[in-house]
Amino acid sequence: VKTEGFKKARFKILQLLMKLRQICIDPHILFDNYDGESIKMDKLLETVSDYVSSGHKILIFSSFKMVIDKVKSMFDSSGISSYVIAGDVKSKTRMELVDKFNSDDTNCFLITLKSGGTGLNLTSADVVIHLDIWWNPQVENQATDRAHRIGQKKKVSVIKFITKGTIEETIVELQNKKKILSDNLIEGKDNSEVLSSLSEKEIKSLLSYGEDD
Known about the structure:
With about 210 residues, the protein is an alpha/beta fold. The chain is built from 10 helices and 5 strands. A 5-stranded parallel sheet has the order 2-3-1-4-5, with helices on both faces. It is globular and about 60 Å long.
């Protein structure tokens, strides 16, 4: 950034930011030969299993389609029933799945944040889990509101999974500072405007771990 400026550096920065966010969810997303733990995925399975055993219905949001697919596979192997809405699901099919979920005994609805964050009424669910952190908290709130609709008679629990000591904590800090107020960062509609709102120190904190030398 210092030598080339935001315009030339922003694409590399965006790629790095996305990879850092993905590795917080599951290192297998980036590394095929990774044979270590996936703490967040393990915790998700543990949490969902506990809620399902208590009779709850759950909405699970992620920014990444590949993550939704991995969760779906994990749930299928564990006997946890689920529906999926992502960008490739047609509008008519989405509404059919919503109606089914609200009337049947399916445990979970797995939804990509940008494709199902608005316009869906899923009041049969009383637990909402955000598996990863989005830059704009308002987008997360809109997704949570899928369960907070007219007709909801239950208390809704909202859970955010945040990996300690990673970019996710830094994003939350920036959210709290109201430094990032647009969801255009990853969409690419106006990357330079959003990146330009961050200082070099803030960008460095997103891309680094631990204390500065």
